[in-house]
Amino acid sequence: MAKAEQTYFCEVCRQKVVVVKDGFGVLVCCGQEMKLVTEKGMMATWTSAHRKPTGGVVYVCKECGQKVSVVEETTGILECCGQRMQRESYK
Ligand SMILES: [Zn+2]
Ligand SMILES: [Zn+2]
Fold first, then answer.
1. What SS3 class is residue 30?
2. To bridge 37 with a disulfide, which of 7, 56, 60, 68 should be the other Cys (CB 3.0-4.6 Å)?
3. What is the pLDDT of residues 74-87, one digit of tens each?
4. Range 20-24, long-range pairs (CB < 8 A, 24+ positions)
């Protein structure tokens, strides 16, 4: 189960998200569970390598209320609770 401020990434498309609001659902991308990023060194490498802000794209699960902010946006489809997450945009 995801917790707020944890970072998850997709091993298939490399999409990376930060959990803004945790829910009971499992984050899925490209048909498989997203992996929790735990190593600080790994994170540091990535943030310095990809300095491209994505404009605060947020996805929400209508089922469990889980909310994630996309750090690295790809074409991968984010799912939670067996359904596509809804895209929101904050300015
Ligand atoms: Zn959910
Ligand atoms: Zn993916």
1. coil
2. 7
3. 999 999 999 999 99
4. 20/58, 20/67, 20/68, 20/69, 21/65, 21/66, 21/67, 22/66, 23/61, 23/63, 23/64, 23/65, 23/66, 23/67, 23/80, 23/81, 24/64, 24/66
Positive or negative, the CA dihedral 64, 86, 29, 7 is negative
CB under 5 Å of ion ligand 2: residues: 10, 12-13, 15, 29-30, 76
How far, in Å, is the centroid of ligand 1 from the Cα of 80?
A: 4
Neighbours of 8 (CB within 10 A): 22
Letter for the amino acid at 70?
A: V
